[in-house]
């Protein structure tokens, strides 16, 4: 009779990464490339966080659950060294990157093609071209400066003091102020403030111009590409890079506690009760309030941080719709028909009214919309001759009486808004799937209240104050524990920089 086999020896991973969103996966890849053994723990059944794709409406229609177009995808200093195209990722572009139609028939548009942009902007082509030309010369140095860990003195010096001054002049303006100084037509003036409402920054907010400015200039250079097959293709490419370096991903592994001994994070406890040790570091791709209030033992979190997390400033909620269509959207303006992304905002005043209504807790009468046409550049998203459509509006996170009672009516209001710009749109709808703020939080716990950005994008909550001063360099008060989510600088966007910077901090400390 053979003796029983000896129990397998499980090696303690050098590093645990909590969360398999893009930031968590980028952190894990950087740690694995540095020679550490890495285990990624993901609470959900599938990895990706807000970068996932699913058939939410009908079979054969592939919809992105969260992020759907990626201005940082091909240019982020966190992604470029990973060579995601070499891991199978294919990017697709539309001729127009960002179109801004209004019911009056005007439509200002931004494209990577300077001639197409000039034709769209007319009398405002010259000032825009000066901005785009400057950005083309400085883009990579700018992104390195803006996406690196603060204070990023080396990248800032490489960007140059004159370029920093020019960017600071934008950053000190409101969206309305910068737009009215720069452009003559209402169509052009609504572009940048409209882009800023990807976050919770309204046209009249002090120091709010920089958000829309950055998205606009990226549209002119990197564009708003989509991954072939869906946003989940980014996640698959990152997992490929992780696994080729020996890293491991484990799903359905919800962390409920971080264990601390002698003020060092040494292990995590799962919802099942299982404890998993971490040999050298833990990086959390998690919401900052969740990390500091729920997962860490109270004695290890200073009272000031706990107070700050209880009043953490979240951004607007989000209401999202996926549609399966039997044909392309019949836009009135041809630029919209060829655009990757359409931004529906009638004017600066319309965007200001929208912002006031959302902040007051009301559903907006005339919803501002971000609309993604992924199946235009990527036909694999839908069956032949069919199309997908994706759109969201910013909304209050909660409503009196709850969201369930308002979901269908608000979705109808959004469809009517699109109908104004594309008569006949509703006749092409085969099915739709609705996602209110509670629905979005249910599929990704980091999207608290439907906040897509990991906290408010207001300037008072950025830079050295994200998530809380002085813990803005990805370290936490607990040794060996790092915050690598969009709740840390540089914040929102699928750029992977938060995860990369947290990994670099951990490697520096090791």
Automatic annotation (TrEMBL):
It comes from the Bacteria. Residues 24-497 form the Amine oxidase domain. One of its GO terms (molecular function) is oxidoreductase activity. InterPro entries: Amino_oxidase, FAD/NAD-bd_sf. Probable oxidoreductase that may play a role as regulator of mitochondrial function. Interacts with COX5B; this interaction may contribute to localize PYROXD2 to the inner face of the inner mitochondrial membrane. This is Pyridine nucleotide-disulfide oxidoreductase domain-containing protein 2.
């Amino acid at each position: 009779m053979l003796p029983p086999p000896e129990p397998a020896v499980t090696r303690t991973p050098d590093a645990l990464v909590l969360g398999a969103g893009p930031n968590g996966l980028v952190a894990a890849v950087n740690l694995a490339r540095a020679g550490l053994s890495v285990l990624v723990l993901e609470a959900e059944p599938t990895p990706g966080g807000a970068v996932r794709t699913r058939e939410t409406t009908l079979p054969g229609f592939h919809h992105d659950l969260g992020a759907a177009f990626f201005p940082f995808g091909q240019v982020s200093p966190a992604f470029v060294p990973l060579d995601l195209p070499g891991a199978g990722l294919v990017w697709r572009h539309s001729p127009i990157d960002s179109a801004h139609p209004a019911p009056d028939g005007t439509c200002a548009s931004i494209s990577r093609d300077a001639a197409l942009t000039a034709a769209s902007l007319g009398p405002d082509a010259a000032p825009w071209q000066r901005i785009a030309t400057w950005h083309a010369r400085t883009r990579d140095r700018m992104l390195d400066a803006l996406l690196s860990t603060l204070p990023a003195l080396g990248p800032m010096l490489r960007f140059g003091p004159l370029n920093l001054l020019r960017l600071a002049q934008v950053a000190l303006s409101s969206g309305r102020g910068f737009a009215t100084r720069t452009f003559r037509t209402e169509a052009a003036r609504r572009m940048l403030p409209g882009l800023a409402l990807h976050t919770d920054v309204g046209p009249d907010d002090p120091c709010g111009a920089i958000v829309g400015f950055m998205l606009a200039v990226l549209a002119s250079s990197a564009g708003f590409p989509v991954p072939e097959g869906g946003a989940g293709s980014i996640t698959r490419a990152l997992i490929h890079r992780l696994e080729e370096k020996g890293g491991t991903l484990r799903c359905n592994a919800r962390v409920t506690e971080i264990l601390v001994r002698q003020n060092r994070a040494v292990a995590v406890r799962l919802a099942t009760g299982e404890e998993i040790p971490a040999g050298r570091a833990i990086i959390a791709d998690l919401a900052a309030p969740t990390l500091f209030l729920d997962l860490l033992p109270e004695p290890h979190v200073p009272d000031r941080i706990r107070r700050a997390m209880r009043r953490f400033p979240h951004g607007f909620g989000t209401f999202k719709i996926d549609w399966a269509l039997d044909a392309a959207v019949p836009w009135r303006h041809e630029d919209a028909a060829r655009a990757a992304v359409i931004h529906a905002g009638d004017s600066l005043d319309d965007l200001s009214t929208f912002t006031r209504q959302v902040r007051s807790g009301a559903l907006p009468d005339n919803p501002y919309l971000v609309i993604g046409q992924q199946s235009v550049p990527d036909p694999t998203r839908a069956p032949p001759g069919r199309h997908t459509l994706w759109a969201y509006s910013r909304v209050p996170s909660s409503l009196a009486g709850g969201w369930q009672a308002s979901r269908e009516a608000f979705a109808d209001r959004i469809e009517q808004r699109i109908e104004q710009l594309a008569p006949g749109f509703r006749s092409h709808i085969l099915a739709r799937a609705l996602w209110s703020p509670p629905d979005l939080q249910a599929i990704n716990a980091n999207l608290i209240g439907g906040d897509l950005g990991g906290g408010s994008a207001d300037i008072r909550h950025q830079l050295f104050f994200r998530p809380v001063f002085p813990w803005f360099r990805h370290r936490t008060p607990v040794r060996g524990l790092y915050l690598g989510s969009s709740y840390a600088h540089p914040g929102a966007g699928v750029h992977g920089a938060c995860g990369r910077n947290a990994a670099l901090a951990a490697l520096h400390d090791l």
